[in-house]
Amino acid sequence: MRIKIGxxxxxxxxxxxxxxxxxxxxKLSEAKKLGAKPTAPTKAKDTITEFIKxxxxxxxxxxxxxxxxxxxxxxxxxxxxxxxxIYTPNSSVTNxxxxxxxxxELIKKNIDLIxxxxxxxxxxxxxxxxxxxxxxLGIPAGxxxxxxxxGVTVQxxxxxxxxxxxxxxxxxxxxxxxxxxxxxxxxxxxIRFYGNAKGIINTTYVQVGKxxxxxxxxxxxxxxxxxxxxxxxxxRPDTLFLLxxxxxxxxxxxxxNLKKTLLGIDAVYKGEIIGEDLNEKQILELLGKHKDVKVVxxxxxxxxxxxxxxxxxxxxxxxxxxxIDNIIxxxxxxxxxxxxxxxxxxxxxxxxxxxxxxxxLMVVIGYRLSRVVKIQKTINFNNN
Length: 384
What we know:
Layout: E1 3-9, H1 28-33, H2 40-54, E2 61-66, H3 72-78, E3 83-87, H4 96-108, E4 113-118, H5 120-130, E5 136-140, H6 154-165, E6 170-179, H7 181-185, E7 191-201, H8 219-235, E8 240-243, H9 247-255, E9 266-269, E10 272-275, H10 280-287, E11 293-297, E12 305-307, H11 316-322, E13 327-330, H12 333-337, E14 343-344, H13 349-358, E15 360-366, E16 369-374
Parallel strand pairs: 1-2, 1-4, 2-3, 4-5, 8-11, 11-13, 12-14, 13-15
Antiparallel strand pairs: 6-7, 8-9, 9-10, 15-16
């Protein structure tokens, strides 16, 4: 029996990440002016390519997709020659209405699964139309991804699709979450629950929704983390420190009397903030001026991502310039209790495997106190 898969790509998803806009909603023109380039089409194509290369039943799929960069181009470039166009956008610049209109057409085709490429906003648009009628699987391409429908990386998504084709996975309810981008850009992280969808259940390769933790009971531990980082800065007076996003790192900065942006990348040199809410280009310019650089990151609670979610400014080029051994990961014990492993999704498969080869990272959990935490290897068919 042939399986019907609907394939939707949001071509602009994630474009605001590297240029520091914390999302692309209503910011496409600004993102382009800052030099942002589309990344979602490449991720969509790579997922299909990886899947087809390793799935003997891929010929059993009946593909339904949209014209142009909303799916057709990516399928064709991945080697899929037979597909049905169910929707054509009116403009080369697509929007949420295009996604919703495509979903309405997919419903008419009695699709078995919708494979989409985008972020939380794309997931919301899809679920608004299909509700729980069709299971979803998301290729991660947005700046922010908290919903439980996304594979942790492109390779993981291809593997999930393979397992789904072989009836090795079940379908169940998952949460659709999204952050308010306007508040996000102002430094406030407000995640809203938008409802449930049908998703593929796989706790290893499908991310769960972001977990939040109460800060008050953890303040003493965060103070210790601040003391540890401050001592590192004093020991390395000529080192540039890049402070990543999140409440843990923000608390560390606050204890050092540094006014840090909650959700941005800030630069500290000789005890002073010398760059706020930096984008990729600005970080690279600083790297050209400073030889010794450290970056301080804290994993997303429950998901475990230290790279690839909410900090796309730390691009593969940035990380290679800094060096993965110069990444300092900090977390409270309570957060680690719900985050059994660390994950990376830099968008560069070769760079991700440099992390996998390390197998573990030391995570600072207090003053001069660290714990070894395993890096989850998001499998690729050639590297099981």
